[in-house]
Amino acid sequence: MKILFSPSEAKSDFNDSSSLSVTSFIFSELFDKRVYILEKLDNFLKNNTSSNLVNFFGIKDIYECERLTKIDLLSSSTCKAISRYSGVAYQYLNFKTLNKSQQEWLFENCIIFSNLFGPILAGNTIPYYRFKQGSTIDGFKTELYYKEHFSEAIHSFLKNDLVIDLRAGFYEKFYTLKCKHITMKFKKNGKVVSHWAKAYRGKVLRELSKHQPQTIEEFENINFDGLNIEEIIEKKLKREYIFKIHE
Predict the structure, then answer these.
(1) pTM of the model
(2) Residue 56: beta bridge partners?
(3) What mean pLDDT comes out for the span 68-86?
(4) Closest CA to 211 of 109, 123, 120
(5) Are the C-beta atoms of 205 and 166 separated by less than 8 Å?
(6) I need a surface site. Which of 53, 89, 112, 229 has the fewest CB within 10 A?
């Protein structure tokens, strides 16, 4: 099984690994494509006004914006991506409390779509950074760039695996699935939840790491806490599970 997941804007400043290198990421043959974006971003940040940086980073603290512009992403210390992200989904995943085999499984089987680094494995190492969802580098859209240059590599990586797509809608712009896959929606009081979908994606990812299903039958046999399957909708390559929240 392979899982597609979103990043989060909230990040920890924890570091335990050395700076980026060609071995930091999956698809090492495309490392130069990621470096191109980092260098493009560095040039953009160093040649912009404070007001533009506030908009780009999505924060109002000008001093923090200025600090972020001075971070050398290529030489900064790193940590595993799944430990770097600390938003709602990652809080509910509660990665630190999983056992070693569950953590290792996520390192190898969960692809996170970073606005800055593109498709990376949960076990790949990245530095602290900030890149607001939907921001562009002077009009340059990283989601389109990564889709163009990384789609074939992702196709090959996912080949013959059961795929569960837990990405938020925006991150579908980075990669379009060409194989059979599972998606999930969460409903409460008859309505699809939006913000709290992040929490349930985190909960689901946690259970997947524990059960590590390899077939649809094994996936359907997982008892996701607080969720019941209400409906299954088949749409060409997509098998969409509608879960009713009963907490």
Answers:
(1) 0.96
(2) none
(3) 96
(4) 109
(5) yes
(6) 229
